Amino acid sequence: MIHQHSFAYEEWPDELALSEADRSLLHEARQVTALAYAPYSNFWVGAAARLVSGALVTGTNQENASYPVGSCAERVLLGHAAVRFPNDPIDTLAISYHPKDKSSQVPLYPCGMCRQALLEQEIRFERPIRLILSGMEGPVHIVGSAESLLPFAFTGKGLRS
Ligand SMILES: [Zn+2]
Question: Which of 57, 91, 93, 127 falls between 20 and 30 A from 149, CA-CA?
């Protein structure tokens, strides 16, 4: 028997198609790329999340000379949110990036490790995290949950089976 997995996502030509709240969040993610510490990859990533309470948290990639020690913007943001707002789930997360001294026009998606980390928060708070993905300009993708980006994920349920 063959099964098929698919999911729907939104694609817009630019941020003008977004609601004011989403546009403002994406703007924050683009702005915060300036705070990335990325001397090795020169790839500056910014993430900004609106929590259910309306609070805003941000994260940027933080690299290390020992490369695997570095952390992506998304997971830095999750740590930031967990400490400052421990019981306030993320509603929407915007992610942007740019190579050093360049712009970017293609939406990029979180790496596999960050998909796993985001999924854990969705399970913990029993609530999907909307993802807004875009470069510094150009098209915007919106995905309804991290779970849709990680089908057949390993979760705590698997640990107990
Ligand atoms: Zn990542």
Answer: 57
Query: How do strand 56-60 and strand 9-12 relate by DSSP bridges?
Result: unpaired
pLDDT digits (tens, 9 = 90+) for 25-68: 999 999 999 999 999 999 999 999 999 999 999 999 999 999 99
* CB-based contact 93:118 (threshold 8 Å): yes
Q: How many C-beta atoms surround the C-beta of residue 69 within 10 A?
A: 9
User: What average pLDDT does this structure show over 136-154?
Assistant: 97
CA 44–ligand 1 middle distance (angstroms): 12
Identify the pLDDT of residue 67. Answer: 97
Domain 9-148, what fold?
Cytidine Deaminase; domain 2 (3.40.140)
| Predicted pLDDT at 47 | 98
How remote is the CA of residue 2 from the centroid of ligand 1, in Å? 31
Q: What are phi and psi of 144, to 5 degrees?
A: -75, -25
R_g (Cα) of the chain, nearest Å: 16
Q: How far apart are CA 122 and CA 125, in angstroms?
A: 5
Instruction: Return the H-helix or E-strand segment holding 51.
Output: strand 43-51
CA of 88 to the centre of ligand 1 (A): 22
